Amino acid sequence: MKHIIFLENCSFGLKNNIRNQLYKRFSNDFHVYVFFLSSYEKKFINDINFKNVSIKKLNFFNFSYFLIKLLSSKAFLTFTIRPLLFGFFLKLFFPRLSFYPTITGTGPLLDSKHIIYKMMRLIYPSILLKAEHVFFHNITDAKKFTHLIKPDKFTIVGGSGIELPKTPIKTDTYEFPLKTPRIACFSRLLVDKGILHYLEATKLLLNDYPFMKGKIFLAGMFYNSNLKSNLVTKSQIQDWVKFGGVYLGQPANKADFYSSIDILCVPSFREGLSNVLLEGVLYQCLLLTTSAPGCIDVAESNSGIICEPRSTESLYNGLINAIKLSPVQQKTLRVNAYNRAKRKFSKDKVLNTYYEKIAK
Asked: 194, exposed or middle or buried, with CB in 10 Å at 0-12, 13-18, 19+?
């Protein structure tokens, strides 16, 4: 049986639903080898039990085994920066490798002044040119590299995709101020996720409408594995909580979380393609997000309310517009978002795109 290889950054990535589905889909016709570079929790490894799928941590002792499998593989797939770099250098040493990177987002790659990102900008074109085929999560990122890659060498996939019901989930509308909507932002607590703008914009909202205290939420976990300048601190969150916001931490049950929210806010500066927005569509939250790549893709065409990234004022105005929508306007946005996601971001479409390009 032919085989393919997935190289993951860490075992936490094994929990990613779309990758789980890719392992399973390819295992019908291939033996799938999943190697990861670092380990966080072994339970993520034990949770995957598909036929023809083998999972190992890549280390010094099994590196020769990895190379043997790699050199005889049908395809070699990566999804995040560290595996991407690793795959690029392997491709340099072994030009015959069929290398299929997925660019889940350019992040600070194109505008950061940090030395690491400056170095990455120099070699990124070479990485993409070495690939057999490149998958992008959004059209904006793809356009930045179309001068390097031939049209038949890249594909835009719908992020991780979403599995939607045949008809939208029924939800109640609100009618401000008689019925106050519940607003939430759900994200890793990082500056470039727009968290500080969310804190400041919702403070302004609470100042205007004090009765909304207890109705404005922030969900997500503190994230230390990033540049210090990009971290949101506990003291910043505590100050916001004193003002009337509610910090939930990481939701134990995402379905319950989304079902309890009327307006879902994603004020990010950039995304690959926002899973949070897609999950919000599933539970028929009204979307409020920025015009940034990976956010606008989900909410454009009157599928949500759009504000400018990096702007507290624009986000505040977006919040005002959202809470004052009529029930008819709310329903229109929710239906549009559902239809758009069904058409462009279905999980089956994402899986089929990968399979058709790689298994051909």
From this structure: buried
